[in-house]
Each structure stands twice: as C-alpha cells, then as structure tokens.
Predict the structure.
Amino acid sequence: MGAKLPPDMAGKCVRCFLPEALCVCAEVPRVETRTRVLLVRHVMETWKASNTARLAAMALPGAELVAYGDRERSFERHLPLPEGSWLLWPEGPPPPPDAPPPRTVVVLDGSWSQARRMMQRHPAFRALPRLVLAPPTGALRLRIPPREDGMSTLEAVALALAQLEGPGVAEPLLTLHELFTRRGLQSRGRRSQIVSADG
C-alpha cells in the first residue's frame, strides 16, 4: 500500500476504510493459526473500501499482504513460493488424500476477472496444489458475485482455515466479516442484504 492516501479518504479510517464513526478496527480479533496466509492483492484493489484482504491481514498475525501488479514488483520478491504452499482456488484437482496439510495458503485477492488473469499469467500460481472450498450457503455481501461460489477474501480465508484447523479458528473471522459488511452497507445508506456469494 502506498504512503499517500487518496483524497476521498477524508473522514474515513485509514486502516479499515470505513467512515470513522463506523470503524471496526477495535473489533478486529487476533487469530493465531498454524497455517500461514499469503494474501496476493491485485493493485487495483488497494484503495477499494469493500476490499477485505486488509482485514484478514489485520486479524492474522502470521499473514502477509503483498501487492500484485505494482511498479515495485512486490509479489515477485516473494518467489519462489514457500515449500508446502497451496493455492486457495475454486477449481482444480485436490491434493492427494495422503498429502500433508499446507504450511502456507496463497490467496489471490481481487475481482474474479482480476484473480483469473493473475492465475493465467503466473506459473507460480498454476503449479500449486489447490484448496477448494464448498460454495457458501448465504451471507451478507458488499459486492454482487459473478459466480455462485464467489465470496469475499476474508470469508474465503475463514472457511479455508475452518477446513484446515477447525471451525473455532474461523468463527471470529466470520463475525468480523459480518460486522464489516453490515457497517459497509450502513455507510452506503443501504439495508443489510443476503445473497448467495460475493465477488
């Protein structure tokens, strides 16, 4: 994230990007995990108020948030990806049943079209075993998804950790996701709404 904030940040929290009166930063839990999470965020998502990768990075002490597509080539400095990395992705063959659990989960953060292009253009992502999640059954959304199995990054990370480490790890992250979404909708003057998935 660059050092200079955009002009439309006036009156907003510089960490969660919500209006200061609706800030969720004091509610962000600290969730310790065995699994490291590497969040690779498309540069076009950096200043979007609806982006939840920043919240995942705030809540997970072992997580790292890096930019993809910036001039500094931040992501490339993290190559090769750590041994034992899996890619959180909605499609693809799962690892063998006897494979050890991942030590690192790589999460591509962006719109579906951005994430798909990141996947197509970078062999480091395509080479990883896939961690595939079941489609969500319904949740509050800030964005309308292009796919039934789409979800926000924070929600996807929570469900991945639930699969790997149990539901107790995911619960505080899902609570944070719901709180952030409700306040995000409130900041737009909209009532809470539930749809099947998020982009």
In short: The CA atoms of residues 97 and 146 lie 31 Å apart. The helical segments are 53-59, 112-121, 123-126, 153-165, 167-187. DSSP finds five helices and seven strands in the chain.
